[in-house]
């Protein structure tokens, strides 16, 4: 049995950032186990048709977290990145409009604008009605009938599955307020009016895919990163992995449901793990260029299998083509010779009661000095910049504060 102070499961952004932070603080007694043959997790890139492609979907570096940018720049300096203004569109009513939808209703046909404005005015959130507890009811309450039925509900069914009644509402507070007065003003003035959405600006590498920074970070770990070594058996009480590694502390960034054998936990914790839900996504590459300035476009139309596309030639210099993202349950047969990558674990589902269940699970595991971290370890829909920040914070908490 190889004994280590820390065993880190998964070399995605959260596991890599945690390991790098340990090294920065002088801690060398750790090992990182990664099932794939390269580091990066969901943020890995591959060269497809002569240019990088994010094989698990669109990933970009947000500009707003200084500590994260400082860490990333150690491996890929600022001069290797281009800064982009976010250009996101929605294809609805036969045309591209801006996003978020409530700020660009003025780009729709006039008769559609009238219907949307009327329904926003009648939405429960604008009429003082109590906030509903179910996802579908909440969407109607927040956004009005037209946005709900034309966009939000069909889009979320494509992304997360048909049964939206499984989803809670606790994760929806990040959606912007939909004020009738502001929406009416944007229609009258025919311009965006309201709060800018998240990721209004982002960085993307000049010569590489987003996966390059994580590849370099993994490379910096040297032989502490064990590629091609999947954590199949995790004994939480004994703090052992695969019967080969024994740790003082285990930090897991892999999906809890991905272990072939998960032992040393209570029956209640095992029930929580069995109840965790997720969606899988297929990324298909299409070599054609599109006549659009958007970097990504959302498609609520149920007749289309995919829910969004990423227009590679609008953010990756010298590239062509785009890729579609499709819930794997909706995927169509792949054309011969075409590229597809399937991510079994793409999005953790925000089901009713999930947060309470995860608090219970992670609280129990902490008693054994086993910790969940990142999108899958915490079962939260975190972006890469968020998980890096959380990883740094967790490492600092173990080592006695930040610096």
Layout of helices and strands, plus pairs?
Layout: E1 2-9, H1 13-24, E2 30-34, E3 45-48, E4 51-54, E5 61-62, H2 66-73, E6 81-85, E7 88-92, E8 95-98, H3 110-122, H4 124-127, H5 135-143, H6 145-160, H7 180-189, E9 201-205, H8 211-220, E10 225-227, E11 233-235, E12 240-241, E13 245-252, E14 261-263, H9 267-275, E15 278-286, E16 296-298, E17 308-310, E18 322-327, E19 340-348, H10 354-366, E20 370-372, H11 374-377, H12 384-399
Parallel strand pairs: 1-2, 1-13, 2-10, 7-16, 11-14, 13-20
Antiparallel strand pairs: 3-4, 5-9, 6-9, 7-8, 11-12, 12-13, 15-18, 15-19, 16-17, 17-18
Helix pairs in contact: 1-8, 1-12, 3-7, 5-6, 9-10
3D structure, described in words:
The chain is of the alpha/beta class. It folds into 2 domains: 282 residues, FAD/NAD(P)-binding domain (3-Layer(bba) Sandwich), CATH 3.50.50; 90 residues, no CATH class. The protein has 12 helices and 20 strands. Strands 1, 2, 10, 11, 12, 13, 14 and 20 form an 8-stranded mixed beta sheet that branches. Strands 8-7-16-17-18-15-19 form a 7-stranded mixed beta sheet. The chain is globular and about 70 Å long. The model has no long low-confidence stretch (mean pLDDT 94).
């Amino acid at each position: 049995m190889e004994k280590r102070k820390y065993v880190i499961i998964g070399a995605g952004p959260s596991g890599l950032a945690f390991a790098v932070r340990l090294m920065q603080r002088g801690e060398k007694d750790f090992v990182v186990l990664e099932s794939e043959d390269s580091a990066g997790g969901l943020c890995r890139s591959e060269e497809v048709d002569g240019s990088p492609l994010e094989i698990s979907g669109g990933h970009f570096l947000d500009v707003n977290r200084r500590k994260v940018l400082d860490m990333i720049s150690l491996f890929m300096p600022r001069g290797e990145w281009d800064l982009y203004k976010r250009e996101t569109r929605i294809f609805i009513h036969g045309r591209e409009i801006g996003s978020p939808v409530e700020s660009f209703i003025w780009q729709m046909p006039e008769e559609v604008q009238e219907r949307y404005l009327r329904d926003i005015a009648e939405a429960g959130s604008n009429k003082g009605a109590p906030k509903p507890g179910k996802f579908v009811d909440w969407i109607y309450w927040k956004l009005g009938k037209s946005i709900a039925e034309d966009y939000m509900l069909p889009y979320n069914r494509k992304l997360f599955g048909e049964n939206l009644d499984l989803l809670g509402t606790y994760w929806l507070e990040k959606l912007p307020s939909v004020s009738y007065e502001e929406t009416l003003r944007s229609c009258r003035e025919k311009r965006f009016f309201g709060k800018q959405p998240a990721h209004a600006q982002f960085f993307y590498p000049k010569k590489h895919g987003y996966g390059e920074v994580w590849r370099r970070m993994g490379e910096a770990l040297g032989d502490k990163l064990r590629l091609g070594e999947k954590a199949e058996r995790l004994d939480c009480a004994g703090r052992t992995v695969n019967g080969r590694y024994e740790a003082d502390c285990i930090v897991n960034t892999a999906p809890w449901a991905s272990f072939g054998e998960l032992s040393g936990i209570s029956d209640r914790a095992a029930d929580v793990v069995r109840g965790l839900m997720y969606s899988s996504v297929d990324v298909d590459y299409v070599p054609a260029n599109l006549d659009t300035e958007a970097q990504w476009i959302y498609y609520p139309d149920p007749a289309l299998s995919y829910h969004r596309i990423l227009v590679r030639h609008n953010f990756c210099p010298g590239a062509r083509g785009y890729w579609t993202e499709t819930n794997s349950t909706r995927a169509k047969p792949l054309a011969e010779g075409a590229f597809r990558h399937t991510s079994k674990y793409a999005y953790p589902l925000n089901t009713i009661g999930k947060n309470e269940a995860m608090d219970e699970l992670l609280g129990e595991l902490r008693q054994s000095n086993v910790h969940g971290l990142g999108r899958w370890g915490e079962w939260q829909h975190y972006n890469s910049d968020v998980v890096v920040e959380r990883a740094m914070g967790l490492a600092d908490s173990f080592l006695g504060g930040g610096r």
